[in-house]
Amino acid sequence: MEIIESGRFAPAADGAADYVEHLSVPALSFGTYSIPAGKPDEQSPHREDEIYVVTRGRGSFTAGGRTVEVGPGTAIFVPAGEAHRFHEITEDLVTLVFFAPAYSG
């Protein structure tokens, strides 16, 4: 067992969205992703399957031609290679992010 200290979830020092990886093993990785209200999510599709779990904040999420409202407790699966984005963020957004296999950058 390993205890993961994820610290205080916060945007990058420049106020932009920020991803921080907390654990990486070959089969999966785990991190936190923070996006301040009103800021863009500029990520690109990933080579890994991904799960987001929203822990704080509100906004919208679009992937696979579908848009949904997100808030605390929302869980989203995004298959590898699918374009996706958080947007219309009205409250600072914090998510737990799980990649399988581990995120390769």
Attribute tags:
single chain, 105 residues, mainly beta, Jelly Rolls, six-stranded antiparallel beta sheet, 6 strands
Q: How would you describe this protein?
A:
With 105 residues, this protein is mostly beta strands. It has one domain (18-100): Jelly Rolls. It is 0% helix and 54% strand. The protein is built from no helices and six strands. Strands 1, 2, 3, 4, 5 and 6 form a six-stranded antiparallel beta sheet that branches. A hairpin with a 2-residue loop joins strand 3 (49-63) and strand 4 (66-70). It is globular and about 35 Å long. The mean pLDDT is 90.
Topology of this protein?
Layout: E1 18-25, E2 28-35, E3 49-63, E4 66-70, E5 75-78, E6 84-100
Antiparallel strand pairs: 1-2, 2-6, 3-4, 3-5, 3-6
What's the architecture, going by CATH? Answer: Sandwich
Round the Cα radius of gyration to an integer and report it.
Answer: 13 Å
Beta-strand portion reads: over 45%
Number of strands: 6
Helix content: under 10%
- Measure the end-to-end span: 25 Å
Number of domains: 1
Our count of helices gives 0
Q: Please state the overall shape, judged from the principal axes of the Cα atoms.
A: globular
Provide the CATH top-level class: Mainly Beta
CATH topology name: Jelly Rolls
CATH-assigned homologous superfamily: Jelly Rolls
pLDDT under 50 segments (min length 5)? none
**Structural class determined from secondary elements:** mainly beta
Mean pLDDT: 90
Q: Mind describing the biggest β-sheet? A: 6 strands, antiparallel
Oligomeric state, counting identical vs distinct chains: single chain
Q: What pattern of helices and strands is seen along the backbone?
A: EEEEEE
